[in-house]
Amino acid sequence: MNFRKATIEDVSTIVGMLADDQLGQTREDFQDPLPTAYLDAFEKINSDENQELIVVEDEQAEIVGTLQLSFIQYLTYQGGIRAQVEAVRIRKDKRGMGLGKEMFQWAIARAKERKAHLLQLTTDKKRPDAIQFYEDLGFTQSHEGMKMHFE
């Protein structure tokens, strides 16, 4: 597997993976051409040194997975850095082959390389299989997350 930073040419494939699940179908607008909001977001992510939008390629250089790592500097933990992993997706035909575990091993190593003291994630409570997967990797449910959506 090859892990690399995404390019603008990868955005459509990434959005396709984000939209290809029960929850993603309700919040993404995957069409051709993509709405410019996705391309604008990519440019912001790509220009921020604390954001890493990653694609995972197989041996044929096809994109089979994606994730985004954010590195958050704060004052607590003596000026520590927290790594946040989001938007983890694996192409539908590649699920169940151990790719998710490889992706998280890479993300953990990358967070350590950037001197983060922890790697955190959120997952929707409607995804019990994902929750079990993260627990099997060693993540613990240590906090109760809350959100406020704006219209």
Strand composition percent: 15-25%
Which strands sit side by side, in order, in the main sheet? 1-2-3-4-5
Radius of gyration: 16 Å
CATH topology: Aminopeptidase
Report how far the terminal alpha carbons are from each other: 39 Å
The largest sheet is: 5 strands, mixed
Q: What is the general shape?
A: globular
What does this structure look like?
The mean pLDDT is 93. A 5-stranded mixed sheet has the order 1-2-3-4-5, sandwiched between helices. The chain has one domain: 3-Layer(aba) Sandwich (Aminopeptidase). It has 151 residues and is of the alpha+beta class. 36% of the residues lie in helices and 24% in strands. It is globular. It starts with a strand and ends in a 14-residue tail after the last helix. The longest helix has 15 residues, at 99-113.
Provide the fold topology:
Elements: E1 2-5, H1 11-19, H2 24-27, H3 36-47, E2 51-57, E3 63-73, H4 76-79, E4 81-90, H5 99-113, E5 118-121, H6 128-137
Parallel strand pairs: 4-5
Antiparallel strand pairs: 1-2, 2-3, 3-4
